[in-house]
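Model it.
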Amino acid sequence: MFNVVTTRPVHTLDARVVFCIWSGDNAMSTQRLQALFSIYNHVRCPVAYLNHVSLWQWQLPDAPFHPAFAYLSDTHKADYLRVYLMHHYGGGYTDIKHTTTGWHSHFEALANSDQLCAGYTEISPHSVAKVGGALEQTLREHYTRLIGLCAFIFKPHTPLTRAWLERTHALLDRKLVALQASPACFAQDQWGITLPNGQASTYPLRWTEMLGDIFHPLILEHHASVLHLPMALDFKNYRWPTACSTPRAAAWLLAATPTGETAVECVATAGPTRPIAPTAQ
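Modeled.
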């Protein structure tokens, strides 16, 4: 049986919760589905899978999502949500990429330390955020002090998560008017990309502007409070064309919500979401 989150824990770090997010209503490819199942099968911790329906139930009444959230691309929505979740809830986050690693020992290591977060060491100087100038050169020179963006664990409500959320909100404050004028038109929209009509996108956010451009400099500032652990994902072959194109071929996955309910989303097609109880697999 999948170990899914069916209630919103007060402290998701203590509950050893691992979040993963698919923020759009677009279909997952077969490869993504396999990656998602690998997370359920291997992390050995409760998994909170947030889809475009259930993600709203993690919004706190006294800490609403930024007003710009509605105008973001699905990719940037996922970037925003991992910041929001790590600050307000804590716990783990993983991209939907293949993993064979159990996370229980990683949670234990962070809980038993004075560090504020844990993650895998950034894989190379070429993987740091392309922020340009002297800052990018510094990040490249000290990339082994950084952790990667795709899998990590954070303690909530720390100076690190607070600064992360504040800098993200400051960016969105500056971009709000432009986002309202040019909201994202597809899941991976970004500034200047060539659209199918041949025109350059006017969506005002660069690809890494919401996450890496903020995250990597911040981690370098707090590198003494970062725990490095062997929790990297498989970064190969995770984005293939969708293989399932009919409801008959759909794969149904448990999607946890924080209100005591569970839902199942047809993620191999663009089909509807409907409630169902967890079942043994």
